Amino acid sequence: MLKKYQKQCPKCKSIIYYKRKNALVKGIKRNSICKKCYKNKSTNPNNKICSQCKRDIPKIDFTKLKMSKDGYACCCRKCMAKTNKKFRNKYAKQQLERAKIYRVNNKAIIS
Q: Is the dihedral of CA 80, 81, 82, 86 positive or negative?
């Protein structure tokens, strides 16, 4: 069992020790990786690691996103498509009902 100021690296499963002060200042997150794994990350500047499938992929396979630090989305297009498909399937009936209500209330605008 991990103690209060310990975390487990999600990649190599080693234990990460940190001080409370550092955790608050540096913002250690639940998916933080150890120094060893961080150094072994992709060194190719044209590649990026997808946050969902954890693969090293060329940046061309990521959608552009101005808000992010590097200008690309956090997950690749394939993972984004899977996520969007799940969302559409989950809320399909509600979306159809909203569309019907909109068509009834805005007949003049639509036609």
A: positive
